[in-house]
């Protein structure tokens, strides 16, 4: 597997740490293969393709990325993703820049792509604040200890956290403030159709669905379902409402349907969920 950083440095200060995870570590879903930082005047290698994913955070300076035949300008602060098998090259302007980079792989990358955490449709993402991301990279560097076999597990956890922080750092408002998601949340417990939601925002149904997918990583129906089930769990544990009443509170007038849906999605019946959570220390609120 290609473990080399995506840049070579000239007249630049930098460091790198590389890990070779044990085969069992890949069962964690995500492994870190390397992490490093470079600052100064850097030149790119010719176009190449990695055998793993890479994340690059540019904290100062500007430059360019050539990704799968397309040119992208980079102005710090910015972050970009490099997937395996895609030819690319990148470099700062002659003045140089400052960057963090990480190499990673594993089956969880497909899930992160599906949920929009790794957005390959927009490989270069402008950032409004890099503080949390730089902290995440430092944590990854601290946990990536080539001489410690336990480092595989700790670095995997730090890599998961870095991807999550990157997603939240893409915009100041954050995906939770998406007008599409706000609209869905406002009517989550009422029988409002997707068509009505889209029309309220002046969007086609297709555009609305696509926008929800980008913001939440799922369909509008799935997003509302999760909101309803999360609220149902809260009511089951914090109140003494009958199961049927809980179902009505979250939008299901058919008690039998609500119980079957809850059981299918959570693996336990509503009444059993209430009992088990209260045995763990939950109690009805006054």
Percentage beta strand: 15-25%
- Main sheet? 7 strands, antiparallel
Fraction of residues in helix? 25-40%
Mean pLDDT: 86
Outline type: globular
Could you name the CATH topology of the largest domain? Jelly Rolls
Name the CATH superfamily assignment of the largest domain. Answer: Regulatory protein AraC
What is the CATH C-level name of the largest domain? Answer: Mainly Beta
> How many beta-strand elements?
7
Total number of helices: 10
Order of helices and strands: EEEEEEHEHHHHHHHHH
Q: Return residue spans where pLDDT drops below 50 for at least 5 consecutive residues.
A: 1-10
Query: What structural category arises from helix and sheet content?
Result: alpha+beta
Q: Give the termini separation.
A: 58 Å
- What is the count of distinct domains? 2
CATH architecture of the largest domain, by name, is Sandwich
Give a written overview of the molecule.
By secondary structure, the protein is of the alpha+beta class. The protein has two domains: 162 residues, Sandwich (Jelly Rolls), CATH 2.60.120.280; 101 residues, Arc Repressor Mutant, subunit A (Orthogonal Bundle), CATH 1.10.10. 40% of the residues lie in helices and 25% in strands. It is built from ten helices and seven strands. Strands 1, 2, 3, 4, 5, 6 and 7 form a seven-stranded antiparallel β-sheet that branches. A hairpin with a 2-residue loop joins β3 and β4. The longest helix has 19 residues. It is globular and about 65 Å long.
Produce a short descriptive summary.
With 286 residues, this protein is an alpha+beta fold.
